[in-house]
Every structure is written in C-alpha cells, then in structure tokens.
TrEMBL record:
Alphabetically ordered keywords of this record: Membrane, Signal
All copies of domain Outer membrane protein assembly factor BamE, residue ranges: 27-88
Entry protein name: Outer membrane protein assembly factor BamE
Pfam families assigned to the protein according to its UniProt record, in alphabetical order: BamE
Any Gene Ontology CC annotation: outer membrane
Signal peptide interval: 1-21
C-alpha cells in the first residue's frame, strides 16, 4: 500500500497536462459554435463554466476560457452585453478545432 500512493500521485501528475490539452482543444472546438445573441445559459451549455470572468462595469461582462499549452496560453473571450447576450466571441487562432494545441 505504501508504494501505491506515490505511484498514484505520479500517474496523476503525468496525466494532468494531457487533460489540460484536451480541455484546451475542446474549448477551441466549441468556441466556433458560440454565436452573437446567445444567452449566458446557452454559452455555458456549449463551453462549460468559464475559467475567468471580467465585469465591464454596467455594460456587460467577459468570460474567458484557456487555450494553448502550459507555457503558451491565450484566452478565448466571450463578451456579453448588458442584457446578458453574446456581443462577440474572440476565439484562438487555431479555434477551428482542426488542430490540437501542443507543448503541454
């Protein structure tokens, strides 16, 4: 049992970057599905919970999602207007979903 715990911790450490790359790829793939006028609930259904939220005063907010590798990240940004509808979506350059991020 003593050796099992360190091996489990090592396995989790090695698999964590793979999960991050997969999530990053899914964010890129899903970002192109977000359209102007969608509600926050619709975006959450497509993209999941944002990794960051920036309140832009009373005019709306911006949700961000990570894209890239552990050393080269750039956020995907979904901007909402004051009514909570998508005003714009800024997807990563590779957000066509055809190319997986590397470097993790």
């Amino acid at each position: 049992m003593r050796i099992f715990v360190p091996l489990l911790a090592l396995a989790a450490t090695l698999l964590l970057p793979a999960c991050t790359a997969q999530e990053s790829f899914q964010n890129a793939e899903n970002c192109v599905k977000v359209k102007t006028g969608m509600t926050e609930q619709q975006v959450r259904g497509i993209m999941g919970a944002p990794t960051g939220e920036d309140l832009a005063g009373t005019t709306g907010k911006t949700w961000s999602y990570q894209f890239g590798s552990a050393t080269d990240t750039q956020p995907i940004r979904i901007q909402f207007d004051a009514d909570g509808k998508v005003a714009s979506a800024t997807c990563a350059p590779e957000a066509s979903g055809s190319e997986r991020p590397t470097g993790n």
